[in-house]
Write a structure and sequence with these properties.
Blueprint: E1 3-5, E2 12-14, H1 17-28, H2 32-42, E3 59-62, E4 67-74, E5 83-89, H3 91-103, H4 117-135, H5 145-159, H6 164-171, H7 176-179, H8 188-195
Antiparallel strand pairs: 1-2, 3-4, 4-5
Helix pairs in contact: 1-2, 1-4, 2-3
Amino acid sequence: MVRIDDSNTVVKCWLSPEEIDRLEETAGSEGWEREIAMQLMGRCGLRVSEVSYPSTEELRWSKNGEIWLFEVQGKNTKGGGQKTRDAWMPESVADDIHKYSRERSLSESDRWVDASTPSVRRWVKEATQIIADETGNNRWTSVSSHDLRRSWATYYLVERQVDIRTMMAIGGWSDYSATEPYLAEPTERRIGEAMAGE
C-alpha cells in the first residue's frame, strides 16, 4: 500500500518498486511515451522538469562502471542556472528506451518524451486516479510526479543503502541537506533485514 505522510500541508507519498511497476503499466496503457516518462522519474530519479530533456544522444554505456548513464540538465540545488549531470539508468529501462526509440524511429537527437512538464504531471495524476478507482485505495490520488523521485531516492538511500555521495551525483543534489527529505523511515522489510539474527 502506498506509504503516505500527510502531517504537513504537502502530502508526501512513497511507492514500492511493485507500485511503480503498476503505475508505469497503467500510464503505458495510454501510450508508451507516458510509460517512459514514469520510468525516467521512478526508476532513474529525474525531476518532472527534467523528463523532456534526454535523448539517445545523451545515453552512453560506461565501460568503467558497466552501467548506462545519460546526461540531464536540471535544477541546481545551490541556485543559479541549470546544472548538467550524468544520471544512472537501470538496464531494463535502457532496453525499453532502445526498443521505444526503434519503434518510433526516433533520431539520436529526438527527445524520448516530447511533452511539457504540466503534461507529464497530468499523466501521473490520470494514471494514479485510474489505479485508485480500480483498487479502491484513495491514497493513490495523493501521489504526485515528485513522489516518483522521492520513492526512487528513498529506495536506494534507505532500502538499498547506496552511499550518499553516489546518490547526490546521480540525483543532482549539491549538498547533504538537500537529500535529508528523502531519508524517510525504513519499510518493515528493511527493519526486518537490519534486525535479523537478534
